[in-house]
Task: inverse folding
């Protein structure tokens, strides 16, 4: 299953179940995950990990 299919299916679920309040939470989780993956081998890693 491709990434765009998963995102499309998740969006359809949110629309069908009227769970729009989950969208900001999912967005923040994806953003934090991306930040942690990006900072894994960065010089800024010690500073980012102190935030969590």
Result:
């Amino acid at each position: 299953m491709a990434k765009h299919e998963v995102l499309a299916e998740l969006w359809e679920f949110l629309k069908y179940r009227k769970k729009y309040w989950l969208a900001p939470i999912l967005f923040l989780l994806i953003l934090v995950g991306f930040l942690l993956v990006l900072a894994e081998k960065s010089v800024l890693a010690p500073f980012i990990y102190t935030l969590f």
Summary: The mean pLDDT is 79. The CA atoms of residues 35 and 41 lie 11 Å apart. The helical segments are 3-17, 22-38, 45-51. The first helix runs from residue 3 to 17.
